[in-house]
Amino acid sequence: MKELLKTIIDYRNERGWKEHDTPEALAKSIIIEAAELLENYQWPDQIPDEENVKEEMADVLIYTLAMIHDLGYDPIELVNEKLVKNNIKYPKPIK
What we know:
Number of helices: 4
Largest sheet: none
Strand content: under 5%
Mean pLDDT: 97
CATH architecture: Orthogonal Bundle
Number of strands: 0
Radius of gyration: 16 Å
Low-confidence stretches: none
Number of domains: 1
Structural class: mainly alpha
Distance between the termini: 36 Å
């Protein structure tokens, strides 16, 4: 994960985009890219463009990981903490 984060941040910084990547701008970009992903599933009979689905998921991840990095969070900790909360809110069903 650290290597992936470094790749994303280095890519951004080499292009001089850091100054534009405010938390607000990144949050907006995440939503925009998620909407582009959703377009692949807009109509019930629509066959999603698999390549576009992969590209839009990557865009969502890139912006999300950049925002996580810039806010000083650990992505693994964030996910684990949220899974603990979700487990309390949505416990496994008893069989």
